[in-house]
Write a structure and sequence with these properties.
By secondary structure, this protein is an all-alpha fold. Helix content is 42%, strand content 0%. The chain has five helices and no strands.
């Protein structure tokens, strides 16, 4: 099973340059918890609501997903 890549530093530096097909199936699944799918990732549709929410406004499952992707409240809120 594919895993989630290790992120050091700003998670945006890791994720922002990848296409949806570059993501492992597990990464796609975790981003899916945050509402992302291939169309929104590739900017063919609007980003999900979580993209504009502050950390404290994310659901507990969304925060857990964000943590798996290397985000902390500081990084999430500054994005």
């Amino acid at each position: 099973m594919a895993s989630i890549r290790e992120v050091t530093g700003d998670p945006g530096d890791t994720w922002d340059d990848l296409s949806w097909s570059d993501l492992s199936s597990e990464e796609q699944e975790v981003w899916g918890v945050l509402g992302w799918d291939e169309d929104s990732w590739e900017e063919e549709t609007n980003p999900p609501a979580s993209n504009d929410q502050y950390w404290d406004d994310l659901s507990s499952s969304e925060r857990a997903a964000a943590k798996k992707l290397g985000y902390t409240q500081e990084f999430w809120d500054e994005e």
